[in-house]
Amino acid sequence: MPTPIVNKSVQSLKVQGDEAYEAKDFSLAIDCYSEALDIVEDPVVLSNRSAAHAQKRNFEKACEDANRALSVAPQWARPFHRLGHALFHLGRYGEAIDTFSHGVLVDGDDVHLQDALMRARAFTESFVTAQPEASPRVVPQTTKPVTPTLNASTEFMAPSGSRQTGPRATFRVVYTKVVVRETPSVQAHALEILSQGAAVQGAPWDVRGLPWLQLERGWMLIDGKSLGLGQLLSSDDAPHEADSKRELGNKHFREKKYSSAVRAYSDAIDLDPQDARSWANRAAAQIALLKDFGKNLPESVVRGNSYFQSALSDLEQSLSLDSGYLKAWIRKGQLHTIGGEKNEAIAAFDAGLKLDPSSTECKEGRALSHQRY
């Protein structure tokens, strides 16, 4: 999508921030953008403040603003570049590559994203193909992993340029087959191959930008997205954490903080993408934002809005996971009603009524669709 139109109420402050940025007064630029954001959550201003934070080497805040911009304008490519750049400078190379890849999917013509993706991949692959240098031996944990039982003679070495990122926990194999390796390198000797569903205990590590799980003996790659493999392991705690994030989203939604709700639901989806509720809830928050921003707009414009498209995609994903989820059908009907799509709205409400013939929301929504059109 093209660059969103800046909200008129903050246009002047945005221009002041841009001028300060061009003059390399990044602190003043941040102040101007922040004042604008106190008035309205504008994606262009958020993206620009992200860039200003990055110039001051404050990459955590740059990530935060880029994520906020994406929650408001998920089909706009520039925040993907901002976010990927910040993640890369934080040493989170796998996440940076994943972000650039998503951006290219959103806008395949963006040469800046294509170049950033190519450079990030080349940089990361130089680490992946290199055998990590071994540091002094680490004493193994006394708690044995659930699986596997590995060769007891295998030396357990912590690589240089790495850090532990979390406590020891139980993980499950998501991918069809995952290799346990002697050292955290895809070129390292394979000790064992585990199949989908197998449970392992270990501590997560960041090894030169790639996430690995340190077992009692050996290492397993947690996430191989940057290598084209996808998610390999997931934490057994992820569903519980996802519930907490979804509840946080519900709290924000009740408080009418819809952008914050979208971010919380997105976190829940990242933790547990198989939960239909989080997808449908994120759609509900985007529908609420659409109602705020789409007042008095022609229905054709509403249907082209990124909130509409993202909400529809989320609802379709929710229903693909659970076709019997009544709330998803109701929200789908409401979304089509807002977009002026009478037949689609009625079809969604009818699907809901098949699940629950007494549903007041489906009956009222269906009647409203008939009245409006």
Automatic annotation (TrEMBL):
Top-level lineage group: Eukaryota
InterPro entries cross-referenced by the UniProt entry: TPR-like_helical_dom_sf (IPR011990), TPR_BSK1_C (IPR058209), TPR_rpt (IPR019734)
Keyword Ion transport: no
Keywords in alphabetical order: Repeat, TPR repeat
Pfam families listed in its UniProt record: TPR_8, TPR_BSK1_C
Domain Serine/threonine-protein kinase BSK1-like TPR repeats: 10-79
TPR repeats: 77-110, 242-275, 326-359
Single GO term (MF): Hsp90 protein binding
Any coiled-coil regions, as ranges: none
Transmembrane segments: none
PANTHER family on file: STRESS-INDUCED-PHOSPHOPROTEIN 1, TPR REPEAT CONTAINING PROTEIN
Full protein name: Serine/threonine-protein kinase BSK1-like TPR repeats domain-containing protein
Organism, as annotated: Noctiluca scintillans
Lineage summary: Eukaryota, Sar, Alveolata, Dinophyceae, Noctilucales
